[in-house]
């Protein structure tokens, strides 16, 4: 496929042989001199064995990302992985929801690419220069597989800037005319793709929204960092006595109100407050026996970990203090740099400082459309615990 070859140093090929998709600069003995950044190259061992193909960007510490392993041509692998990603979702998710993640980066063998489907709208997110160069091939395949009414790009992230790419947002084909209505497990939600966080909706919480339906009957629920009210709709649908949503975004809360009405739920049981969650939890009295904490990532980079953990500890401590004996706390962290073990230690510290007896009832259940590549544990980012507070 290519005249260019990236050669790994002696003893530096173990990760690639183990099908890890990232090649760091320290593992590379020689890079192809004539290859432009973003281009494809063969990956070879020191003795010349072909290990696969990768796209290259010399300006990044992750110098190359594998597109194929072994002798398979990279574009063939790209198309095969796109087909496989679609087949997986069609078999496991499509029957219960018309909104799901079609491509989950390294989890589907497609580093630098996220594709989300919202009814007949397809949203793509490209984070690397190499995948940017491959985007025409990706779009061609997506048109054939999804047949979307709208193809929308929402590629805005610090990762793009590290790759030397400007942000790119807007319709590639078709026109968005406001929020898109989706159906998930029989419940309807409105998704603002243009102005919303990430690609518009937290698809990765699908399984946990179902858990909230089961846990909510007869409970008073605080949905903190509520965004567009996914957990609120599910708590009300499950039979909660009261559900209050708190978020700093008035626009997100307005969409949450609309989603409550869209499902024919009792609006008198739903509250919406534009406020800082930390401030709300510091109030002397809160009348809830089920609190949901789903904050945005507190650690956007590795140097943020220490202050992020302070934030996670503070907010969970406050929630534990406010819950009555027997209350439930469903708490999450989506910070990539705060792994499950560290987050669990933070919760231990929060429980100790709150002087409460806390038990873990369940861990976060991963949604089927967000697969984790067993060879690439670094792609795991969302973790959560259902806690019983006595």
Describe this structure in words.
The protein has 390 residues and is α/β, with parallel strands linked by helices. It folds into 3 domains: 5-72, PUA domain (Archaeosine Trna-guanine Transglycosylase, Chain: A, domain 4); 75-180, Transcription Regulator spoIIAA, CATH 3.30.750; 202-389, Rossmann fold (3-Layer(aba) Sandwich), CATH 3.40.50.150. The protein is 30% helix and 28% strand. The chain has a 7-stranded mixed beta sheet, with helices on both faces. The longest helix has 19 residues, at 74-92.
Under the CATH scheme, the architecture of the largest domain is 3-Layer(aba) Sandwich
Instruction: Give me the number of helical elements.
Output: 10
In percent terms, what proportion of residues is strand?
A: 25-35%
Instruction: Flag low-confidence runs.
Output: none
Overall strand count: 20
Radius of gyration: 22 Å
- The geometry reads as globular
Write the layout of secondary structure elements.
Layout lengths: L4 E4 L5 H4 L4 E3 L3 E3 L9 E5 L5 E7 L5 E8 L4 H19 L6 E6 L8 E6 L2 E6 L2 H18 L3 E6 L2 H5 L5 E6 L6 E5 L2 E5 L14 H10 L4 E5 L5 H9 L3 E6 L2 H13 L7 E5 L2 H5 L8 E4 L11 H18 L4 E7 L6 H15 L3 E6 L19 E7 L1
Parallel strand pairs: 1-4, 9-10, 14-15, 14-17, 15-16, 17-18
Antiparallel strand pairs: 1-3, 2-6, 4-5, 5-6, 7-8, 8-9, 10-11, 12-13, 18-20, 19-20
Helix pairs in contact: 2-3, 5-6, 9-10
Observed structural traits:
390 residues, Transcription Regulator spoIIAA, Rossmann fold, 3 domains, six-stranded mixed beta sheet, globular
């Amino acid at each position: 496929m290519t005249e260019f070859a990236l050669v790994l140093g002696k003893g530096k090929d173990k990760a690639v042989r183990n099908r890890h998709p990232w090649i760091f600069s320290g593992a590379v003995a020689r890079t192809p001199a004539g290859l432009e950044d973003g281009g494809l190259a063969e990956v070879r061992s020191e003795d010349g064995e072909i290990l696969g193909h990768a796209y290259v960007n010399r300006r990044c510490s992750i110098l190359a990302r594998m597109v194929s392993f072994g002798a398979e041509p990279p574009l063939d692998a790209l198309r095969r992985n796109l087909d496989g990603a679609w087949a997986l979702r069609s078999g496991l998710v499509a029957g219960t929801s018309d909104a799901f993640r079609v491509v989950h980066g390294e989890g589907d063998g497609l580093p630098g690419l996220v594709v989300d489907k919202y009814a007949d709208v397809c949203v793509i997110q490209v984070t690397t220069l190499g995948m940017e160069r491959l985007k025409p091939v990706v779009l061609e395949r997506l048109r054939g597989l999804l047949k979307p009414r709208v193809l929308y790009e929402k590629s805005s992230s610090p990762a793009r800037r590290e790759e030397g790419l400007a942000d790119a947002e807007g319709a590639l084909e078709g026109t968005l005319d406001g929020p898109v209505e989706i159906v998930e497990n029989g419940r309807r939600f409105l998704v603002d793709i243009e102005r919303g966080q990430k690609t518009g909706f937290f698809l990765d919480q699908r399984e946990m929204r179902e858990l909230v339906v089961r846990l909510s009957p007869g409970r008073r629920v605080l949905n903190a960092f509520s965004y567009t009210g996914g957990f609120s709709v599910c708590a009300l649908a499950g039979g909660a006595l009261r559900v209050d949503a708190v978020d700093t975004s008035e626009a997100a809360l307005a969409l949450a109100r609309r989603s409550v009405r869209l499902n024919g739920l009792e609006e008198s049981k739903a509250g919406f407050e534009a406020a800082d969650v930390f401030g709300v939890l510091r109030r002397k009295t809160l009348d809830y026996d089920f609190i949901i904490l789903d904050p945005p990532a507190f650690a956007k980079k590795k140097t943020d970990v220490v202050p992020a953990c302070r934030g996670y500890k503070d907010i969970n401590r406050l929630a534990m203090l406010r819950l009555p004996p027997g209350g439930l706390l469903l708490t999450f962290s989506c910070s990539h740099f705060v792994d499950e073990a560290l987050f669990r230690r933070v919760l231990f510290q929060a429980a100790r400082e709150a002087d409460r007896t806390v038990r873990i009832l369940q861990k976060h259940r991963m949604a089927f459309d967000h697969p984790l590549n067993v060879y690439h544990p670094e792609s795991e980012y969302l973790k959560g615990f259902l806690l019983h507070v006595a």
